[in-house]
Specification:
CATH topology of the largest domain: Rossmann fold
Number of helices: 10
Strand content: 15-25%
Distance between the termini: 44 Å
CATH class of the largest domain: Alpha Beta
Shape: globular
Largest sheet: 6 strands, parallel
CATH architecture of the largest domain: 3-Layer(aba) Sandwich
């Protein structure tokens, strides 16, 4: 069993990006610039945004954090997005989700100029991804593909089962896994799937993104499978200082011995998500996807 070390790969990718940024600036180019809008004080979101700002520093990007209280109106937020769309210095920006209930997330996503949508959530980027055109691929699916490639995990003709059908992970990762060059045969399971254990047991590659702690148990995994665990749920735990433990969708201790490759939680897919955002920002700065 080999552990897929997301942190190790993330650090490799960061040093590659940092090197490229040095070259761009040495050749008289502009420093890549990522902006992040955060609304309110959700603990998880604040932590994510802090990580994103720190990662920008590590690779030599300029970053701008724009904070609003959670009583900002939808129209005021949309006006701020329009400002960033029109700011030539900003290459890419994201609006940290979730947003307060009175703001439509879909409206916000569609208001972002797709050429600056480094989260890859805009329907134009999602549509381009689904037909294999250059685009910004959303961060978590992109990070998963990067891990699979860097660990040289065989995907061609393999049975891949994706558990979960969210717009953020399940749907896009299933689309990426069937594309030419990856060539897996993909089944998507969700809460309405009948005989889910039998379906998952046939998988060479399992991508668990259902948000249900320890959902995947040893009896669902065949020997030698590759397991990518996207779940991160805070589960109460008396032994940790915070009183919580970050728990994946896979019952790691019993599943790991059966696997050829498995990602831990934390330290697997998580670190790759921010790196994918940095890669998209670099693409945006270089105008490689959209002129």
């Amino acid at each position: 069993m080999q552990l897929i070390d997301g942190k190790l790969i993330a650090d490799q990718v960061k040093s590659e990006i940092a090197e490229e940024v040095k070259q761009i600036i040495a050749n008289g180019g502009k420093q890549p610039h990522l902006a992040v809008i955060i609304v309110g004080h959700d603990g998880g979101s604040e932590t994510y945004v802090a990580h994103k700002v720190k990662s920008c520093e590590q690779v030599g990007f300029k970053s701008t954090k724009i904070e609003f209280e959670d009583d900002i109106t939808e129209n005021a937020l949309l006006a701020e997005i329009e400002k960033l769309n029109n700011d030539a210095d900003i290459d890419g920006f994201i609006v940290q989700l979730p947003l307060p209930k009175h703001i439509s997330e879909q409206k916000v996503i569609e208001a972002i100029d797709y050429r600056k949508d480094v989260d890859g959530f805009h329907p134009i980027n999602v549509g381009r991804m689904s037909i294999g055109l250059p685009c910004y691929v959303s961060a978590t699916p992109s990070g998963i593909i990067e891990l699979i490639k860097r660990y040289k995990i065989e995907t061609s003709g393999k049975n891949c089962v994706v558990i979960g059908r969210s717009n953020i992970v399940g749907k896009p990762v299933s689309t990426l896994m069937i594309q030419k060059g990856i060539d897996a045969t993909v089944t998507v399971c969700h809460s309405r799937t009948k005989n889910i254990k039998d379906v998952v047991r046939g998988a060479d590659i399992i991508i668990a993104a259902i948000g249900s702690p320890e959902f995947v148990t040893a009896d669902m995994v065949k020997d030698g499978a590759t397991v990518i665990d996207v779940g991160t749920t805070r589960v109460p735990n008396a032994t940790t200082k915070s009183g919580f433990k970050l728990t994946g969708d896979v019952k790691f201790d019993e599943v790991a011995p059966k696997c050829s490759y498995i990602t831990p939680v934390p330290g697997g897919v998580g670190p790759m998500t921010i790196v994918s955002l940095l890669k998209n920002t670099l693409l945006a700065a270089k105008k490689e996807v959209y002129k």
